[in-house]
Amino acid sequence: MFRLIPIFILLLISSCSKEEAYTQKQLWFMGIKVDPTIELVGISNNEEHRRILCKNYGEGCVKGTGRRIKIKKVEVIAIMFKTTADAKKEALRINQYYARNWVFDDVKGEPIQEKFLIETYNAIDAKKEYELSLKEKD
Predict the structure, then answer these.
(1) Does residue 16 lie in a domain region?
(2) Mean pLDDT on 94-106
(3) pLDDT at residue 95 greater than cutoff 80
(4) How many domains does the chain have?
(5) For residue 18, what pLDDT is reported?
(6) 110 Cβ contact partners less than 8 Å away, ≥ 6 residues apart
């Protein structure tokens, strides 16, 4: 009986909810599982203007995590944030998509990329989500 108590406590602690976040590695492997043709886009030294910098994004942006991902010949920007709340806030500000702690930029108006992000990461259109929440309050 007394042996079960520590196991019960361990299960209780491990079941406490933590904010779910994707690591860079998880994000990548989830993507190639759905579409093995996606690719990371390299930025050469003479393309400084194409770098993804936190100074262009909101609070909570994690420095050095911005990536350009080519999905069916179109580039999407993916950038990690510290929390889902930070990602959601930034996605709403720039009118783009987010999934957990990631913001996806340059997606709106690209149906193939929108579909990929929604199916692969359960990405959410921040503006649509916000508008729905306003309607629910009425």
Answers:
(1) no
(2) 98
(3) yes
(4) 1
(5) 61
(6) 74, 76
Nearby residues of 106 by Cβ (< 8 Å), 6 or more positions away: 75, 76, 77, 96
Sign of the alpha-carbon dihedral angle for 121, 126, 127, 133: positive
The two structure tokens encoding residue 92: 């709403």
In-domain check, residue 15: no
Give Dmax over CA atoms of the chain in angstroms. Answer: 67
The answer as to whether 2 is a domain residue is no
Residue 99 near residue 121, CB atoms below 8 Å: yes
pLDDT tens digits, 50-88: 999 999 999 999 999 999 999 999 999 999 999 999 999
Domain membership of residue 73 (yes or no) is yes
Q: Domain limits at 39? A: 21-137
Average pLDDT over the chain, rounded to an integer: 88
